[in-house]
Amino acid sequence: MKMHIVSLAALAGALAATPALAEDAAPSSQSAGDFVKQAEATYAQKLVEGGQAEWVYETYINQDTEALTARAGADYTRFTVDTALTAAKYAARPDLPYDVSRKLNRMRTMIVLPAPTRPGAAEEIATLTARMQGIYGKGKGTLRGQPINGSDIEAAMGTNRNPDELKEMWTSWHDNVGTPMKADYARMVRLANEGATELGYADAGALWRSNYDMTPEQFATLTEKLWQEVKPLYEQLHCYTRSKLNEKYGDGVQAKTGPIRADLLGNMWAQEWGGIYDIVAPPGAGDLGYDIGDLLTAKGYDPIRMVKAGEGFYSSLGFKQLPSTFWERSQFVKPQDREVVCHASAWDIDNKDDLRIKMCIKVNADDFVTIHHELGHNYYQRAYNTQPAYYLDGANDGFHEAIGDTMALSITPQYLVQIGLLDPARVPSADKDIGLLLRQAMDKVAFLPFGLMIDRWRWKVFSGEIAPENYEQAWTDMRQQYQGIVPPGARPAGAFDPGAKYHLAAVVPYTRYFLARLLQFQFYEAACKQAGWKGPLHRCSFYGDKQVGEKLNAMLEMGASRPWPDALEAFTGSREMSGKPMLRYFAPLQKWLEKQNAGKTCGW
């Protein structure tokens, strides 16, 4: 099973409230246990079969593999919906053993696309999602009038500084990839809502929000609290970045006030801004003295060696090496002879040791970081592989995304020295700290509102607050509200810019990435304390600390067997998710940004 992108079902822990049922509708405690045991055995089998079909499809996109994955997806969806409907009846009893109760609730809340039970619905929803993924996987934009694929266009958006060409790439990608799937997406929403209603939820969005050991309302409140904690830091970064873009391009391209033009931020979706660090880097402190991509090239790294380096980080913490099949079966580079989904993902096909990653690796800093991230999924998968099938997941989906990101935070100058990439004489001195922090913030902090608004848009779509005819305008409005960005030109009402983002096309819940951005700083701060780090937090590397690895593995082994606060407490000592560790990490930068922005009109 893959954990970065799960198109038809995402496994995430929850103890959600179940719909009220008459007492005589609930079978006995003993029969509930029997039902769970039987369902879990079938579920384990279908996870493997679905993973195999999806792997072949994403690494060999054609009409036959699309049909195969749609067929497997439909079978999986029928099974999960049937078991969820039955589970709701059993779960109404108050006297169930803990594991039986938790698994019954997971049967309901782990479903992302709950197809209606009427004949043909599961097949239709599976076909829709497979087709949308195919549109995305085969999608192309243009650069100077010539076709450019998704992997190459992502790289070009981070390096091109011609505003007309950036606009061309942005517009062509959104037009060619997003617009063609709008009707399929609207149909998928109707079907998912119909299925969610059968399961006792108001709509599919309410089902998604039930996935976090709390009610949908409590989860929405929690995410808003977390956003309000970190929002002032984002606003300062936005203000500073806009000023630098104005200096670079002039008023005719980027105004001094108001929102930022989305295509100028070094990323197709303006979700991370590290690609334009050269534009915002402060004089002196901004020159870090090295670029990871350049270091990799100078040392002769190829994609395989980059992955070996990532494996080495986890090995240094005491985790055993990846199996030989990982190196035989993973997709590391984009094949030249066929269409594939390049979007990075991590898989455990047999839920035991058939670990794989799927990437189209380029020798650059971004992919070096992404490798550390994806391997985090793999090591998490292996840590909990002895758990029962319904616990084969992270404590919540944000945990799964945060583990690898925690390791990536440890890609500090000291770590680069330790693995022989950086000459010790070239380690940036303390006067470069603002540059180091700004470079991190351009990805970590810039992402926060994007990570939040993706699902907030979808929640409103599922609830009916946003109708299909308003998809595009609502998307544009919410991106301006949360991120302070606007498209590079007017968008037609028939456009469907949300579909130009993979997780929308593949129907992958996205709030997990917002949570992960915050959780990784909680994990990182805890690991640095355990390692006895005394210097500035952002300089900490716990590479080689096996005690940290041992305590981390104890949390990972829990899988989804316990509510997420238990897992969080096991590693960090706290039961509450918080944005404060991130704020402590970036505290020197926030003060510096406020000084740079003095006298400017911030906000949008």
From TrEMBL:
The family database entries (InterPro entries) matched by this protein are listed as: Peptidase_M2 (IPR001548)
Q: Could you tell me the keywords of this UniProt record?
A: Disulfide bond, Glycoprotein, Signal
Residue spans crossing the bilayer: none
Which interval of the chain is the signal sequence? 1-22
Give the residues annotated as coiled coil: none
The protein's name:
M2 family metallopeptidase
Q: Which organism is it from?
A: Novosphingobium album (ex Liu et al. 2023)
